[in-house]
Amino acid sequence: SVALPGRNELLTFGVSGTGAKVGGVVRRYAAGLTPAAEYPIPTPAVVAAVDPAGGKVYAAGLTTGDVWVFDLAAFTADPPAAGAVVKPVATVSFASHRVVGLEVAPD
């Protein structure tokens, strides 16, 4: 999960669906951990970091060595229409390596 500084909100990353239809989901919680919205993403993510100044969210896949770059605005706006998913704007691949942590540096 990642906190959204200045917004008093939290994003969590989880799994949605079952069987062959497994995907990922980002859940946004407002103050007091009140559920605010859900945003489907292509596959589950296990770690994430937010860059509020740059307006980006970075998330690493559950089974891949990929780090996805999402626009932060995609998770603070209304959720997409039913059946649609929020797609990353970029992907950084680390091939067969598993990403176990992410941090955003100020530079």
What sequence of helices (H) and strands (E) makes up the elements?
EEEEEEEE
Give the amount of beta strand, in percent: over 45%
What is the 3D form? globular
Distance between the termini: 22 Å
Helix content: under 10%
Q: Mean of the pLDDT scores?
A: 86
Whole-angstrom Rg: 13 Å
Largest sheet: 4 strands, antiparallel
| Structural category | mainly beta
**Assembly type of the shown chains?**
single chain
How many individual helices?
Answer: 0
Widest β-sheet, arrangement of strands: 1-2-3-4
| Structure summary, number of beta strands | 8
Low-confidence stretches: none
Written account of the structure:
A hairpin with a 3-residue loop joins strand 3 and strand 4 (34-41). The protein is globular. The strands form two sheets. A four-stranded antiparallel beta sheet has the order 1-2-3-4, with no helix packed on it. The protein has strands at residues 2-4, 9-16, 23-30, 34-41, 45-51, 56-61, 66-71, 90-93. 0% of the residues lie in helices and 47% in strands. It has no helices and eight strands. By secondary structure, the chain is mainly β.
Sequence-ordered SSE layout with sheet pairings:
Layout: E1 2-4, E2 9-16, E3 23-30, E4 34-41, E5 45-51, E6 56-61, E7 66-71, E8 90-93
What attributes characterize this protein structure?
single chain; 107 residues; mainly beta; 4-stranded antiparallel β-sheet; 8 strands; 0% helix; globular
Summarize the structure.
With 107 residues, the chain is mainly β. 0% of the residues lie in helices and 47% in strands. The model has no long low-confidence stretch (mean pLDDT 86).
